Request: fold
Amino acid sequence: MFEWLASPEAWVALFTLTALEIVLGIDNIIFISILVGRLPEHQRQSARLIGLGLAMGMRILLLLSLAWIMKLTAPLFHIWDNAISGRDLILILGGLFLVAKSTHEIHHAMTPEEQEEKSAKPAGFMAILVQIALLDIVFSLDSVITAVGMASHVEVMIIAIVIAVGVMMLAAKPIGDFVESHPTLKILALSFLILIGVALLGEGFDMHIPKGYIYFAMGFSVVVEMINIKIRKHITKP
Reply:
């Protein structure tokens, strides 16, 4: 069980996979941060930790169900000459949910009157956790497929996931507070989630968009927005 400890390749895979799991988890953190922003202040940190705990649990369960994951690639039916497998179906439904939810959140951000009414009736704790769990399935699938492709030992994959989620738990509150305190950054984050949702839809229909392009576009947009935030601070200073 622990023979991988003597393997340098396993240690390299562990460090590389942990870094990749953290990068792949950033969109998960953003989505969780936006969802928990609808909860009362005293419930937000609990929802973040439980949400990320759900993400970790989902990924480990999927890793322990590798045979089932392999079966997900078998075609179930065809749409426009495209074979749709179980994995494709999860990605398509997840992409649609992500696009719909992000668009809904942007709409509420653009209608302050409705937002004030909604803030008088905070979202239910369990309802938020259910939404987080649904998206965790989609994000976990992507993460697990990456893990399976990079490491040959299940123990290495599980340790990488646990470390990555631990780092995400530490980063979730600062990222959430920062996004919540900058409305334009929140809209940008929601736009990223729409972009990821469209990418998931494309992936489900075998239209592969290189992830490097997506991450570059997101990184470039964040840098521009950071410059805008700094400029706005200088302008508003007396």
